[in-house]
């Protein structure tokens, strides 16, 4: 029986070969031969190069994640305590498509304020998202589906993935002025001109605080002027808030741009992330909210859930539980506020130390921007060639736009970093 089957297979293969069938069969192994390798992510590429470097003096100031003063990743005590409350009490059932209701409620209180009339009146459509990136992508797809002829204005520069998100959602992009290279601060006049000249009813992507990559934020007065001009032009503000609490150490202060827009009657959108401010990078916990009337908020939420359904169906439960427990437990929330302020204060302290160390070396350049900027990143003003010099001669790694992750700066390496920066810029 077996030998008869073997002979039949052999004869069949011989016939197929004679008829050119094998060539057709083998061609199916080359369906993807036209696919080229994707370009390396510039940030991940920095980390790869750093890990491959064997120098004992190497420094990584490219990573976009918090590190302690020993350069180690941190798990907050409030997170450990929240996980202790979860342990043994967690089933593995699906969350609803919109995610954890409790986590969403607590997220809205954090972003909009505990006494917000919008949330009290149920005029906010909100769903749990896969961190800030997922929240942005959900909104981009929502924008394309229901306002297909709209476009999005994105600041120059911005977090590189913003461009990818709206591109892959097929939303046309425009840009607006933001950073002023000469002053290494905000190009406010040009920004306001772009806001005024954009067609009425345009969509704008705004960083709520700790602008990535520049660390340059508008002042409160400037935010009020921006809000006023948005009102005049009937623009829609979509805030990406990835660093609430992490910028100044005070979540209320870091939400001031959003609060100003709400005071002025804007119906905004907001992407929240708990990666940085709770150290939940790998948990991918975020929230997307869109302000509307009470009736329309129900419709908008249902559509956001429908967009999520074919993407990932349901968001993960563990990180959402951590966030909701921390924000709803007075003792844990108090601990979180203390810890997030500690992280922010360490970053601010490293800014001061880096500037002082460079100035102490006699640099003839101004380094005020290091302490004027805020948040995880310092837009140093270093040229791509100077960044290459730092890498090749001093084993210091950062992205070629000169963005320094202040989380990678420690009391142990700040002097070495300052000296290296002075060496590559002293002839400027």
From TrEMBL:
<dbReference type="GO" id="GO:0005739">
    <property type="term" value="C:mitochondrion"/>
</dbReference>
<dbReference type="InterPro" id="IPR004839">
    <property type="entry name" value="Aminotransferase_I/II_large"/>
</dbReference>
<dbReference type="Pfam" id="PF00155">
    <property type="entry name" value="Aminotran_1_2"/>
</dbReference>
<dbReference type="GO" id="GO:0006520">
    <property type="term" value="P:amino acid metabolic process"/>
</dbReference>
<comment type="similarity">
    <text>Belongs to the class-I pyridoxal-phosphate-dependent aminotransferase family.</text>
</comment>
<feature type="domain" description="Aminotransferase class I/classII large">
    <location>
        <begin position="57"/>
        <end position="421"/>
    </location>
</feature>
<keyword id="KW-0663">Pyridoxal phosphate</keyword>
<dbReference type="GO" id="GO:0004069">
    <property type="term" value="F:L-aspartate:2-oxoglutarate aminotransferase activity"/>
</dbReference>
<dbReference type="InterPro" id="IPR015422">
    <property type="entry name" value="PyrdxlP-dep_Trfase_small"/>
</dbReference>
<keyword id="KW-0808">Transferase</keyword>
<dbReference type="InterPro" id="IPR000796">
    <property type="entry name" value="Asp_trans"/>
</dbReference>
<protein>
    <recommendedName>
        <fullName>Aspartate aminotransferase</fullName>
        <ecNumber>2.6.1.1</ecNumber>
    </recommendedName>
</protein>
<comment type="subunit">
    <text>Homodimer.</text>
</comment>
<keyword id="KW-0032">Aminotransferase</keyword>
<dbReference type="GO" id="GO:0030170">
    <property type="term" value="F:pyridoxal phosphate binding"/>
</dbReference>
<dbReference type="InterPro" id="IPR004838">
    <property type="entry name" value="NHTrfase_class1_PyrdxlP-BS"/>
</dbReference>
<dbReference type="InterPro" id="IPR015421">
    <property type="entry name" value="PyrdxlP-dep_Trfase_major"/>
</dbReference>
<dbReference type="InterPro" id="IPR015424">
    <property type="entry name" value="PyrdxlP-dep_Trfase"/>
</dbReference>
